[in-house]
Each structure stands twice: as C-alpha cells, then as structure tokens.
Amino acid sequence: MEENPKNAPEEVFTLPEDHREPKKDYLLPGSILVAGVLISGSIIYMVGAQNAGRGGAAPVPGGDTSPAARADITASDRDVILGDPKAPVTIIEYGDYQCPFCARFYKTTEQTIKQEYVRSGKARLVFRNFQFLGPESKLAAEAAECAKDQRQFWAFHDALYEAESVDGQEHNGNLNRDLFIKIAKQNKLDEVAFTGCFDSHKYEKQIQADLEAAQEVGVNSTPTTFVNGEKLTGALPFADFKTAIDKALAK
Questions:
Q1: Predicted confidence (pLDDT) at residue 39 exceeds the cutoff of 50
Q2: What CATH number should be reported for the domain holding residue 39?
Q3: What gap in Å lies between CA 224 and CA 50, rounded to an integer?
Q4: Most exposed residue of 21, 44, 126, 134, measured as fewest CB within 10 angstroms of its CB?
C-alpha cells in the first residue's frame, strides 16, 4: 500500500455500521483511459487524462458541472446511509473499489470523518459507484450491491477496501468471486441468495447507470467527494474535510 498523503492522519478509527434500507439500483463503459494526477498534494485517478490541460484532466465529455447539477447529487434512491439519516451534513463519495487512492482515503481520512462527525450525528455518509478501472471494479460493485439487498452494504464495502489496500495494486485479480463469497460468509449473508444475485449479474446495468449519473454531475476521478454539494477531489487530508464540514454546519 502506498504512503499516506502529506498531513493525512495516521490513526485508523472504526465505527459500528449503521445500515439503512436501500431503495433502487445502477457498469462500466469499456476502454476508459486512466491516469494518476496530482492535485493539491493528493493523487487521484482521473478519466480521460490524455486531454488534461494546465489544471489537470478535462471533465468527462457531457459531464454537467453547473450548480444545479451539483445540487442533484443528493437525489438518488439507491443510497444506503451510514449515520443519522437526519444529519445536517451529507457527505457523498464517488469511488472505485480498485482505486488505491480510494483505499487510502478509506483507511485514513474517512475513518476520522466517521469518528468526529458521523458518530456524533453531525454528518451522514453515502458511497456511490464510479467503477471505471476495469472488470474487477465492476464485479466488486455488483457484489456490494448484492450485499446491499441483505442490508450489509457498509460491512461489504469496508471489506473490499481492506482487501484492496493490502498491496494497493489494481488489475491483480484479488477482487474475485471467491473473495466476495468469503466476505459474504464472514458477514453472515445468505450465501445462496448472495451467490445467485452475483452470478446472475443482477446489478450490471445498475453499475453502468451509477457511472453515467456521476459523470452528469461532473465526476471524472476517484475519489471525488461532495460535502453538502461542495466538491473535494482526491484522497485529501482530514483537515480539508474538517474545513468543508464545519463550514456546512455553520450555515
């Protein structure tokens, strides 16, 4: 696993999962170009980086970055909330399960956010798919959606990032069916129901729709996070999120 970004917190905190019932669902276009990009001291994975200008990679063609589009990030019927559903601050992360910087964010900054803001009821956390790094990403997301059917999304989400963070490498085959079934067993999911859901690719089209919905609100890299609509790009240190969250709380 790669080193933490400069000034990132070293502590890893844990939080008991607070699962909320999901509502509806959303793959991955082939041949998306990927590159690492350095922004504000934080490395991200970005789509279409060969078109990057001075400020980094260009947004995905057709992506809408208008304020109205950004406001729509809170309108999804497939979200599973971690924390108090009535918390005043909504934190929405768009991630890819193979992205090493998403795994870094999960292991560092996200744990502190949970400890400081989610556990206290000040913020609620939502994860949305932006699975663009390849077939393993898509399959991992499909498995997580199947876990969502059994109200175990967050436990499954965490286990996927724990597995991916072991070596921080994408396309190495570690996110596979055997791992998904192992995680399902560890979290006491109905194995027959989970395996049937995964093997049927029940949520293949859902994952594609998630990616397209993310592009429409200007997401073109992972991790990308919105704090009450304010966009933060990359595996940023906790201090950056604290500033954004505290500003949102003060309104």
A1: no
A2: 3.40.30.10
A3: 19
A4: 21
